[in-house]
Amino acid sequence: MATKVPILGKDSIIVDYGLWKTYVAADLLRNITSSTYVLICDTNLAKLDYLSTFQRSFETWRDEQKQKDESRGRRLAAPARMNLLKTLMREKPEGHIFATGGGIVETPEARELLVSWQKEGMVLYVTRDINLVMEFLHIDKTRPAYVEDMMGVYLRRKPWFEACSNLHYHSQTVDESAAIAGWTSPLDDFTRFLRTMTGRSGALDAVKRKRHSFFIALTAPTVQNVLPVLEQVTVGADAIELRVDLLVDPKASNGLPTEDFLIEQVALLRFSTTLPLIFTLRSVSQGGRWPEDDVKGALQLYRVALRMGFDFVDLELTAPEAVKEFVLGHRKMCNIIASHHDPKAQLSWSSNAEAWIPFFDQARSYGDIVKLIGVAKTSEDNDDLKAFKKQVAMEHPDLPFIAMNMGDIGKMSRVNNGFMTPVSHPALPAKAAPGQVSAAEIRKVLGIVGEISAKKMFLFGTPISQSRSPALHNTLFADTGLPHEYGLFETDKVKDIEPLIRAPNFGGGSVTIPLKLDVMPLLDGIDEAAKTIGAVNTIVPSQGEEGKVILTGYNTDWQGMVLALRTAGAHGSTGVLKQSGMVVGGGGTARAAIYALKEMGYAPIYLVGRNKQKLGALTQSFSADYNIKLLSTEQEARNIPAEQQPAVAIGTIPGDSPIDPSMREVLCTIFSADDTQAANAGSLIANGTSKKVLLEMAYKPAVTSLMQLAQNDGWKTVAGLEALVGQGVHQFRLWTGITPVYGRARAVVMGTA
User: Fold this and answer.
1) How many whole angstroms separate alpha carbon 13 and alpha carbon 6?
2) Which pTM was predicted?
3) Whose CA is closest to 748, among 474, 510, 538, 481?
4) Torsions phi, psi of 151, nearest 5?
């Protein structure tokens, strides 16, 4: 046994990651609370010096169990590991994680324990590309030597791993250079997986809160085919449907997806998006590609889906009984979409949908969501369907219900559906069903008929005549099919904007100087981040009780900084190996910069500025957990250990003025520091480039003095306009619930669209 972490507050989970140690260790530690303790008993998990922070907890618990291993480099004997597993299962059945090495499955007794645990709990199997694992095992000379071929060991254990686990997380190798802007790290991916598998993703509740929601159906033969356009095709989608029956395995003689192929595809898709995932496997009679008689193959693929953390699983009413029994008997935290398709138009919606009622009742008996899809031959078919949906809404107001008609005539039924409407996109190779349209097309029609009310958005402040915000947001409204309009309202008096923000057609506002602080008393609520930063740059209206409009103030400046840094390759510091950050300057923008670095996990955060008294007051205004350290002299900068040198920095000083000489010496010392140790540490977490990044918030000149200093010592520099793009992207998301394409937004701001 290796690690125990109480983080869930519910059932304990057993995790097997003997084949993949570094990322998962960091991921688990990233999610623990301050009261969490970690116990390490098997050095195959990770070297103890990697997890030195937690050695004391391990040693205390080990002493209590009287299972000391004085060398700490020797594995516990098999009987001792077995006893330890039994002890943990007995004494800590809830709210903990037990992490084992791969060798735990070697004994029948241990395998029986793990299989038995699955009845009430979860056993997670974590893998990576086996060839990469073998490369690592040959390089790592600190591991105990195997007495047999390592690949042979893996192949012998693989069936046991699968039988002993009911969850599976696969780490797929990804080309970071081709990743979507703001790409998330393996740590974020694994965190989302944990949230899904422990029932904390809230995917269904999030969709139910929206008046109009959509999911995009991926119809490509491989996920790799769609990755270049994934960000584009998922704009405005609330979930992604993976049409597994349409996948093509190049290694299979019949092209049908195999288990191993599907595992790779799912891992790659989940790694490349933050949206919830829907698993769908349609047979030929259901309008898909999967052979009707291959029930065994279907069961294998459904098993992969249930183990890998899909938020939704589509289960056809006409699926073989063996498939339905397996899915309903092995579901953990996924939501079942009970669906029925009538591609041959044998059922009618007329006569109060009398022909559909048996299917509706059957789907409602086991589905979290009911989905009924017919075919429209005339426009009256859409009218009859609309009447049935209205009836269902009255009789079952809490039931999530998808009902539409296929075909060109049925397009209007897709416009009227409302909840989780399946959509396509012109950039995809094919539509998943006849008559599918894009989410933008549906919104445009809804705007025309008044189902989506046109709203007015504004930028408040002065001077604002040169702002690119109107071009940005009006372009994004047009791209997503929304009827809204964004304009300028120039003023330095906050009372001037009150009539506008309280108007019925107010859809949201951007706030710039000098009103970021003055606007706060006019609002009904302030987001916690904006409170901490002490400034509001975004106003978001929402519906409160009895239809009252609630105005909430947000700050997206810090989110723009995070997105700009992530896009530049700084994905944050998480897990066991911390990296530090630096903020240059002590004004209002510095507060947002400190908040951004804290949210990204950087610690400590070094603060460099000219006015020591002002910096001290700024530091004191943040709580101690921000771990802010002032750097006032060159010697203080030199005293920073190599492994604690800042890996990322944000500049918030004027770009058109010379840097203060004393500040310049401190900055030169930081920028020129030997980062070998820090780079080695960072690579363990990020698995990518360790180049340090400076985000310069000053817009002019194009290359500031601060940027030049950093560039001279090999730092990557990012212009402040990138953060401007990011904060605008987040504003649009807050107003509309839609995350736009970053590249499109950037091109508009930069004037290259």
Assistant:
1) 10
2) 0.83
3) 474
4) -65, -35
